[in-house]
Amino acid sequence: MERHVVYIITDSNRAYLEVGYCADMHTRLQEIRDSSSILFSSTPKLNNVVLLEEFESKEMAILRQQQLQHYTRMQRERIIRMKNPNWLNLHPTTTFAPNKKVVVYA
Question: What InterPro entries does this protein map onto (predicted)?
Fold first, then answer.
């Protein structure tokens, strides 16, 4: 059974929150990494997946994506904090510095 994922990805400074939909998260993150480095060298590097929601049907996932896209930044941040209060990276393959220490402020 195919899983459909709605995600919110951000840069290291949390300045940008990008909402997206995909069926394969690993492939989608590779596409984001490749496009940001080749086409737009001055754009922020979106590398922290801070929200993941899985759905069984594509229609439900697309509806949720559209819903999140129409939310204000404050509403998106509230949803992220409810499910991921420390804004940890939920997809570990997006880590660019494997020996980097993580400091969690509670």
Answer: GIY-YIG_endonuc_sf (IPR035901)
